[in-house]
Structures are given as C-alpha cells and as structure tokens.
Amino acid sequence: MPPSTAQQPVVNSDGHTWTNEDGLVIQMRRPEPNNEDTVVVKLPNLFRSILATPRVINPLLETVKDIDAWMSKKLGLGKASQKFSDIKIPFLCSAMLPDAPEQPLRAMIEWMSWVVFFDDRYDRGDFKNNPIAAAEDIIGTLAILDDDHPPIPVEENSLRHIYQCVWKRIRNNAPPDERARFKRCDRDYMIGLLHQDKLLRCDSKILSPDEYLSFRRKTSGVRTTVLFSEWAVNLSAKLPLCVVEHPSILVFRELSVDIIALCNDVLSSAKDIPNGEGSNMVVVLLKQGYNLQEAMDKTGDMVYARYQRWEEALQELPQWGGDIDANVTTLIQGYADVCWGNLEWRYV
User: Fold this and answer.
1) SS3 breakdown of the chain: % helix, strand, coil, rounded to 5?
2) How many folded domains does the chain comprise?
C-alpha cells in the first residue's frame, strides 16, 4: 500500500468539508511500533469565498506544453521525462494565469519547472544540512541576475543554465518594475531557504504557527509566482508603481502567499507527515499538541480567515479614479486567479 492517498472531493457534505463518494478524504498509513493503521482525515473545503467560482484555463495551454520537453532535454531526464510531465506544470501555470499572453506564461512555466528541481536539492537533496555548500550555490545562482554574467553552458551546470534562460526571457520581455521585483523576490526566496534549513535542523525548536509562516512566506516561492500575474496584468494596465506597491494592494499579494502556502500544506500533508517533512503547517500544529484532525481543521480555519480578510480589504480599497480603479480590480482578480489555479491543479 502506498504511504498515502489523497482523493478528489466530489460532494460538499456539510458546507465545511468535502468528501468523496465513500466519505473518505485522506488516508494515511502511520507506522507505529506494534501497529500499522490507517488514519482517515477530513479536509476543509478550500473552494469557497474568493475561490468558489471556477475559472477558465488559458487557451495557450497547448502551445506552451513544449516546455516540458525542453526542460527534460536540458536536464537529461531520459526515462524520467514522463514523471516530470505528470506534474503538469503547464496546466498549473495556465490555470493561474488564465488571461496572460504567451511571454509571461512561458516565463512562469520555465521558472516553475526550474524551481521544482532547485528547491528539491534544499528540501531533501545534496544541500540539506549542508549550509556552506547551499550558500555557495545560492550566491552563484543569484549572480546570474547581473546582466553582464557570461553564458552558462548546459553541460557545465544545467540548473543555472535554465535559470539564465528564464532570466533572459524576463529581462527581454517584462516591464522594468516587474524585472526589479523578480530579482527581489527570488533573492528573498533563496536566502529564505538557508534560514529554513537552519530552523528545521534545530530538533529542540518547536515553531509557533506565526514563526512557521514567517519563513514559509519566503521559502514557498509564491511571491515570485504572483509576480508573473502582475507582469501579465501590467502589460496592458500599466499601473504606476505607487499603486502596485500601495499598502492596500500589498495586502492582497501577501494574502495570496499565505493562501497558497496553507492550501498546499493541507493537500500535501498526506505525503509530508509520513515522510517527516517539517515545512508544513499541519506538522507544526501536530508538534504543538493538536491531534491530526484538529491540526487539519485549524489550518483550514487559517485559510478561511484569509478569505475573510480578503473580502474586508476589498471594501477598504481607496479610489484613485479614472482607469486606475478598473485596472486595480483586474490586478486583484489576478491574485485570486493564481490562488484558484494552484488549488485546481492540486486536484487534477
């Protein structure tokens, strides 16, 4: 029997949890000293409030699926190419950016594909518990964002070569403000990985939910993810920087980060708990003394609280006048689309 299974919800049973036809949502095999049993947990209904309305998938999906083959060739995946394609990153990004033109969509897919392999080296690969090597790798990777960095041959370092390709697409096609934010977001993401490794290596440290979210906001990579939505919107909206960076707008960006991170924690807990993964809110709450269902429910409540804050923030938006107000609405809808696309992909 596999370590865990997560089954797609098909029936909204009580307005709060989603169950499948036989009433089970997650089954996890939990190894115990003298007894191996199956734990059944109900998931919170995450498709509600701002994510209740289904979106369309970007019609460019079929056009951008070629990136899977491009990535597999660059990394020399060989027989593992199908396993990589099964992740469905083009679908994920096409669900997150339903209205984006080709360049930001391609850039997002390329970055998402890269980060799968880059992040894995820090979570469970050769840089886990190896902070000096990890720091050296991050310094070398961030150096690529200097425009005078020499070309990196794929045979020399395939991941850095791919990252340089991603940056070249962004540098050549994204507006200046989005280019600057990409640099800032990816810098924070990579430095956050070093901080995460230090925290998770400290066995005696039991993180509070707030402490966990403090580093998860950086290490999840979601701040870079929403940047691609901002790029797609601003190609036509051309919102001034003072509006995009206004506190009343930033609240939606940060809520998006929390919503995606927490939803992912809920839906990946069936894998993370048996594997001992510490970077998960459900695991954090288990260490706080909650039982599994309580931890799942509380994590769901955290998502609901952010839905509520989102709806409140909509009522608090200032009025800029003219086309700016309509374009702000489009930008905020883009943030919500990113959250919905991530959730939809988790059930594909």
Assistant:
1) 65, 5, 30
2) 2
